Amino acid sequence: xxxxxxxxxxxxxxxxxxxxxRILSKRPEFSLVGAVPFTTDVxxxxxxxxxxxxxxxxxPSLFGNLDLILEIRKTVPNLRVVMIGMDDEPDLFLRxxxxxxxxxxxxxxxxxxxxxxxxxxxxxxxxxxxxLCHALFKQVSSQASAPSVRVRLDYGxxxxxxxxxxxxxxxxxxxxxASQLNLSEQTxxxxxxxxxxxxxxxxxxxxxxxxxxxGHGF
Length: 218
Known about the structure:
Arc Repressor Mutant, subunit A; 12 helices
């Protein structure tokens, strides 16, 4: 079927991976284009499969601060990510949202819950457990008016990376920024490099211009 939604699955647990693979493969609206455990070249597999939806089983020891999702979405910008989270911990959920996850189901969810989340993501709808949705609404309502919070929500920038933006906007070099923050110049270079990757631009000034265009004042 030409209108099938292409789904790629990453799950470290073989039983979960095989069970979800069977269920997704039986759905006529889906085309399972990959089902693998986490590997160092997993992004290459995803790019090669060109999926519409990525279903990702979160494993803290492997995915840590969710940089993998940020890197995947940078490489495949239109990819929608559904994550199977560990529990209903709001902090992990909010970090996942900042990284670009549009669907979030818990470990105790049924296979049909996962299928429903994939289907919703395919229709450009967001999915999350009610308790966690409430946490998201509460945070956005109370903090979204602050520029630094909006930047963190939009791009997943750390506090240090946010701190660099107005300094770059003033024309400071990495060496000058390092001096003001009592950090090494290499540390600043590393922060700037990660910030460029997250925002999706190739140079320092483009970060400032993009954020200003999006209404983030500096």
